[in-house]
Amino acid sequence: MSEGLSPDIAAMADRVEAFVRDVVVPYESDSRRDHHGAPTDELVMELREKARAAGVLTPHIRADGSHLSQRETAEVLVRSGLSPLGPLACNTMAPDEGNMYLIGHVGSPALKDRFLKPLVEGRGRSAFFMTEPADWGGAGSDPSMMKTTCRRDGDDWVIDGRKTFITGAKGAMVGIVMAASVDEASKGGACMFLVDLPDPTIVIDHVPNTIDTSMPGSHATLTIRGLRVPAAQMLGEPGEGFKYAQIRLSPARLSHCMRWLGACIRAQEIAVDYACRREAFGKTLIDHEGVGFMLAENRILLQQSRLMIDWCADVLDTGSLGTVESSMAKVAVSEALMKIADNCVQVMGGIGVTDRTIVEQVFREIRAFRIYDGPTEVHKWSLAKKIKREWKQAQTSTSQGEAG
């Protein structure tokens, strides 16, 4: 994977991999989990102290605060994903990694110092407040339906609304809240605000148990009543929130692909080891065509996924928002990884559905990945709309050419 990388990035990626395999993997059986099954903050902070000591904490951000390129980030994040605990330990986990990217690109120097610095240093977690409950008629995959509002009141903005599936809200110290403006100057436009958490005006209504268990704080539903935020804590300009969301979401979708590719590489290693050792019907499992072919298919899908990630990373590194490319990558990679994880469970049989290895967890996490950051079907629908627009434009150009 390291071909073409600068020596310092290749060395960092190797250090991350060694740290995850040697230090983090033994923690996978640690019992410090919440009722939801996610690692407790105590466990996360213990791992981060070890990452700090090993020089692999927040490896995707340089000492001067600049971000690695997307291709460089891929190398580091894939390695951190070799354990479900790896991104938490190395501080490359969602939603923090995406939030750090957004604040780093849009935030003022004062906001970076106050809100970004503690995240980069791994001293706390963050949450991104965008999705809203369906039973409230709010924004799910369609942010134009956003019903959470913000209004200007003197030197402050006041926010009211509801949010749901807010990953990591419980226990977070930094929040990015997205709301639709009712102020005349930016009416109808979205705004983003940085807030200190917890805040008494943000009340967590429910934290569900979900199929995935890798993210501390789970995915909360909450109510915001009269949250007062100083105007200086607005992220960027009023009414520009949708634009900033795209700055965050395109690379964030790709980062998910990177981390879960690492998890599936590890699941494949475990499944291969099992298939090469376990004997049935007179030979090892891998020598049975049905099993061997699944592992061969996995090898192909892993390579295809990496190529898709690198292609999308190259597009983002040109400065493009890459919304179309990140949609395609998210669909292709999440579906491929789902097949890989499913094959690994199948190869391992009964062992594959137990917690004796991480394979069953990887299967659950990838299944959830197919939904968050936009379900596969929403991305396909969006791409189909683009295809239709392109067709219409081509027809118009042809007609104009014939008329000329």
Structural description of this entry:
- By secondary structure, the protein is an alpha+beta fold.
- It has helices spanning 7-24, 41-54, 70-80, 86-90, 96-106, 109-120, 241-277, 289-317, 323-348, 359-369, 376-403, and strands at 126-129, 149-153, 156-167, 174-181, 190-196, 202-206, 219-230, 279-280, 283-284.
- Strands 1, 2, 3, 4, 5, 6 and 7 form a seven-stranded mixed β-sheet that branches. It has a two-stranded antiparallel ribbon with strand order 8-9.
- It is globular, with a radius of gyration of 22 Å.
- The chain starts with 6 loop residues before the first helix and ends with a helix.
Main sheet characteristics: 7 strands, mixed
Estimate the global geometry from the Cα principal axes.
globular
Give the end-to-end Cα distance, rounded to a whole number of Å: 52 Å
Strand and helix order? HHHHHHEEEEEEEHEEHHHH
Helix-strand category: alpha+beta
CATH top level of the largest domain is Mainly Alpha
How many domains? 3
CATH topology of the largest domain: Butyryl-CoA Dehydrogenase, subunit A, domain 3
Number of strands: 9
CATH superfamily of the largest domain: Butyryl-CoA Dehydrogenase, subunit A, domain 3
Ranges with pLDDT <50 over ≥5 residues? none
Rg over CA atoms, rounded to whole Å, is 22 Å
**Total number of helices:** 11
Helix content range: 40-55%
Strand content: 5-15%
CATH architecture of the largest domain: Up-down Bundle
Average pLDDT metric: 94
